[in-house]
Design brief:
Chain A has a domain of 117 residues: Jelly Rolls (Sandwich), CATH 2.60.120. Chain A contains 9 helices and 8 strands. In chain A, strand 4 and strand 5 form a beta hairpin. The model of chain A has no long low-confidence stretch (mean pLDDT 93). At the A-B interface, helix 3 and helix 5 of A face helix 3 and helix 5 of B. Chains A, B: Pfam families: cNMP_binding.
Chain lengths: 188, 188
């Protein structure tokens, strides 16, 4: 599974074998079962996760216990409660497994140490965070300007593989509609 | 105005005089009048802007000519159509001045060259993009979970200085309500 991470990093910055040995020394492997929490609301968030396999949802639970899904993640995606991770404060979000999940994880202090030891990793993370920022801006624009029907159709076009694996109730929570309303939408 | 940029960068990474001379050599000064466009929808976006003074809005105009405001920016903030900037494609957004604005600007090729020449600038930009990403995630969550009334109150608390300077019609376009509906909201 370290090979996945190497290919993933090398899609942005090339690494020598020695450099990759250094990079991988900062990561630990973790295994999670379906429904297990990788990040738990109200607790400290020790890790940023690179998903080797599996599927997760990043969730905010409001005062009335309603779940709002901020993001899904699967193989080759990174996820955690980044606000909590970078500020080392308690999580306001939860990261829950929708399938058995294998992840490589890195602490914040190891993240800083790795970037200091191998500055090209800063370039890699800059590229990844920039892509995440652009995706967030597209989602904001989509929330401001499109209907739920249009957002559902965008999701089908942009992430067909995700749609196959995520239960419909979770898709509904991501779009902000009830399960029943989602059935009525359907792809046109 | 280069002093502003130096203080701004040094709030994250320290620079020697020589390093700062190098950094500033990659930036050009530009002056814009109120209502002038720094980025124009449908045209290429040459620059990422660091605002020395002034106020801007980043706008998406939909098929029915309705304006949706993605972000405001003022002194010490960065802004452009980042999707267009990083992919060197035509802008889908416009960046318009709401006041006379002075900005330091950098092209994408100079951005890459600067990061190559001075890797600590990669750390600076990584920190800035991460903050932008976190702010975007908070806005998504806010759009998913709060009412327009709550979003207006959040804006008053988080950006009081902005509220003083941005016309109410623009605040309404940011919140996604009509000017009349905004008057009825008022701060509680």
């Amino acid at each position: 599974m370290y090979k996945n991470l190497r290919n993933h990093i090398e899609s942005i910055v090339p690494l020598t074998d020695e450099e990759y040995t250094l990079v991988s020394s900062y990561f630990k492997i973790k295994f999670f079962k379906k429904h297990q929490f990788m990040v738990t609301e109200g607790e400290l968030t020790s890790y940023n996760y690179y998903l080797v396999s599996g599927l997760t949802k990043l969730v905010y639970t409001d005062a009335s216990a309603k779940q709002h899904i901020l993001a899904f993640a699967m193989e080759d995606w990174w996820d955690t409660d980044y606000q909590a991770y970078f500020t080392q404060t308690k999580a306001t979000l939860s990261l829950e497994c929708l399938e058995d999940t294998q992840a490589l994880c890195i602490t914040l202090s190891d993240f800083h140490e790795l970037c200091g030891a191998l500055p090209k990793m800063e370039r890699f993370f800059l590229e990844k965070v920039t892509r995440g920022f652009l995706a967030s801006q597209r989602r904001i624009l989509s929330l401001l300007t499109t209907s739920v029907q249009e957002r559902y159709e965008q999701l089908i076009v942009q992430h067909p593989a995700l749609l196959q694996r995520v239960p419909k109730t979770q898709i509904a929570a991501y779009l902000g509609v009830s399960r029943e309303a989602l059935s009525r939408l359907g792809p046109k």
